[in-house]
Specification:
Blueprint lengths: L1 H6 L3 H18 L5 H15 L4 H13 L2 H10 L4 H5 L1 H8 L4 H16 L3
Helix pairs in contact: 2-3, 2-4, 7-8
């Protein structure tokens, strides 16, 4: 959802979801996959071009404070989340990717398709 928010130029919301992701990842003791870490670094670099450092930190902190269920509720409330209700085909296309590069290419394609939706 952070990538979708960033694609829509909603950098505060992108940082919110990065904070939620980081908190949940830490809670379960998971490490970053390299491509996820790279994606998050790019998102935060984009955000820093549009937001002050304290705005980024505050948005990440708000995301980190919520439970996973609350974060999912916030994600589903996003206007662009309507793809989640009919996005099984998109998800299937993403999950059928063979390797990280193909996954990244397919994700980029799906996000470009979302840019035209309100």
């Amino acid at each position: 959802m952070a990538a979708i928010a960033a694609a829509r130029k909603d950098f505060e919301k992108a940082c919110f979801f990065v904070g939620a992701y980081d908190a949940y990842r830490e809670l379960i003791g998971a490490s970053h996959e390299t491509f996820v870490r790279d994606l998050l670094e790019r998102l935060l670099a984009q955000a820093s071009a549009h937001l002050e450092g304290d705005e980024i930190d505050e948005a990440k902190a708000r995301g980190a404070e919520l439970s996973l269920a609350e974060v999912v509720d916030r994600a589903l409330a996003m206007p662009s989340a309507r793809w989640l209700t009919h996005g099984r085909a998109a998800l299937a296309r993403l999950l059928s990717a063979k390797g990280r590069r193909e996954f990244a290419r397919r994700l980029s394609t799906e996000l470009r398709g979302l840019e035209g939706q309100g």
